[in-house]
Every structure is written in C-alpha cells, then in structure tokens.
Amino acid sequence: MDYKYIEQLLERYWQGETTLQEEAILRNFFSQPEAKDIPESLRKFQALFTLEKEEPLGDDFDERMLGMIKEEEQPKAKIVTLTSRLMPLFKAAAIVAIILTLGNAAQAPWNYGWDDPKDEYAKFHQQNADSVNLLNPIQAENVNDSALAPKPEAPQYIE
C-alpha cells in the first residue's frame, strides 16, 4: 500500500494547513482496525490521532479546564502617598545632617585647642566669682556667709 498521501497530509498537518476533512481522513486512517499494517515510520503518530476516540472530552470539559486554571485575582493597586514617595529624600537629608553633625563635633576640639588644666581650673573659679557679683544683695550675703565656712584643701597637682 502507498502511504505517500498520508505522509503529505501529515506534513500539511504539522504546518497547520489541513482542513477539517483532511484531519478526519488522518483520524480514520490511524484508527482503522488494521492498525498493524501501518508502517513503523507512521506508527509513532497513531496515538496522536486515536486519542480523541479513546477519551471523549464530555460536556463539562470547559468547566473542568477553568477549574484547573483558577483565574488569579487581580492585585490591588498600591496607594502611594506623598510622604512615602518622598521617603528616600527624607532619608538622604537625615544622613547628610548626621554626617555634618559628626563632622562639626569632630572638628570642635581642634578649633579650641588643648589648654593647660590648671588654667582651665582657674578660669572656672573666676567665672564662679563673677557670677556671685551678679546676684542681688540678699543672695550675695548667703553666698558670702558660706564662703566664710572652712573649705577643704584644694588638691595639689604634681608637676
């Protein structure tokens, strides 16, 4: 038997150019009872064309397919506020402020220099004495009275 026509129909089937009648011819050919007579080169396509006869789709096919697909819910749109939109800008401004603050804090000791502790201690006591002069007379008397009380000796520095 010559199978050239079937081979031509298969070539057109793979290219998507067959009509419904030609596809019916292919189904009938592969589902015939003498399937043992089909050559080995065409036998591998037999399952493709006999599958429809073995398992009918049924009336509920569409419902089963839609049940398997389960349409995904559309994601809700995210609400973007002005604050959340400007948040990266706020973070950048905070980082710049921190860096500038740390830079100024690190630079401060260098600007004022390193003074002798004895001089600083003397300046501190001078400021306290000046603040006593600013107080009103009643407060000054109380401060002066407490100044008359014996003071503990000042620590001595070893040079």
Notable characteristics:
mainly alpha, 159 residues
Care to describe what's here?
- By secondary structure, this protein is mainly alpha-helical.
- The chain is built from 8 helices and no strands.
- It has helices at 4-15, 20-30, 40-43, 46-54, 61-69, 82-112, 117-134, 137-148.
- The radius of gyration is 50 Å and the shape is rod-shaped.
Short description:
The protein is mainly alpha-helical. The protein has helices spanning 4-15, 20-30, 40-43, 46-54, 61-69, 82-112, 117-134, 137-148.
Mean pLDDT: 75
- Pick out the low-confidence regions: none
Please give the number of β-strands.
0
Supply the number of helical segments.
8
Provide the helix percentage. Answer: 55-70%
- Rg is 50 Å
Please report which band the strand proportion falls in: under 5%, 5-15%, 15-25%, 25-35%, 35-45% or over 45%. under 5%
Distance between the termini: 124 Å
List the helices and strands and how they pair.
Blueprint: H1 4-15, H2 20-30, H3 40-43, H4 46-54, H5 61-69, H6 82-112, H7 117-134, H8 137-148
